[in-house]
Amino acid sequence: MTASPQAGPLLRAENLTMRFGGITAVKQVALTVNPGEIVGLIGPNGAGKTTCFNMLTGFYTPTEGRVFFKGTDITSHKPHAIARLGLIRSFQKTNVMKRLTVFENVLTGHYMAGRQSLLATFFPGETVRRAEREARESASAIVETMGLSRRMNVQASLLSCGELRLLEVAVALAAKPTLLMLDEPAAGLNSHEAGVFGETLKTLVGTAVQSLLIVEHNMELVMGVCDRIVVLNFGQMLAEGEPRAILSNPKVAEAYLGKAAA
Ligand SMILES: Nc1ncnc2c1ncn2[C@@H]1O[C@H](COP(=O)(O)OP(=O)(O)OP(=O)(O)O)[C@@H](O)[C@H]1O
């Protein structure tokens, strides 16, 4: 499904810094995501995770620092131009239309990411009809990949929380990401649902996407799916490493437990 793997890091950010007036939300963060990796970006509330996401995807222009995607400097690119290169993000707010079915939502995701002109939509020729066929086939395949085939024709408003979270990822996949960045994709899931969700995410890498970058507060999920974790605290990098090393890092425990541990 995805293009041949990138040589070198897929995403590389250096010295990322964001200041809002007198507030430094993110300071000198360095981040890489390699092909085939699931990277977690974690940290306590207000640590700067969403601000980093916004800088990586062109929603904010960093005060300092640079972002490279597939070797191209995208620091001052607009969000839509970055999305076209294959860097797709989700938002904390749902991208699902509740009155549409699961299939219709994913199909709509294809059109949102489409390049088709309005004229071609109203006066379709063979090219448009083929694109339509391909979009339907692709939407079906994505629904299956996300384990939602049995719920294909069910209205999104009737889905369980776990199914809804899977559908949100399915809609993002319709944009054909090379790197998919998910902002709190497992919000509100119970332990069983988070387990299913995590296992599904792992199957995407190397098939539907090359890599994943995840901001998530559910530590069980993060520790279970990520190859590497970057920890932010007060806008700065506190630690980076494999899940086991992060779990046993006293600085990380202190950042999370802080006053409670004192
Ligand atoms: N537009 C803004 N203007 C001013 N300050 C901001 C702005 N956006 C974020 N901040 C501040 O920057 C810091 C980092 O916020 P950010 O939302 O990136 O953290 P986060 O790690 O994503 O938090 P959470 O886990 O709660 O979503 C916070 O202190 C926040 O108040």
Automatic annotation (TrEMBL):
Keywords: ATP-binding, Nucleotide-binding, Transport. Pfam families: ABC_tran, BCA_ABC_TP_C. GO terms for molecular function: ATP binding; ATP hydrolysis activity. GO terms for cellular component: plasma membrane. The keyword Iron-sulfur does not apply. Residues 11-259 form the ABC transporter domain. This is Branched-chain amino acid ABC transporter ATPase. It comes from Azospirillum thiophilum.
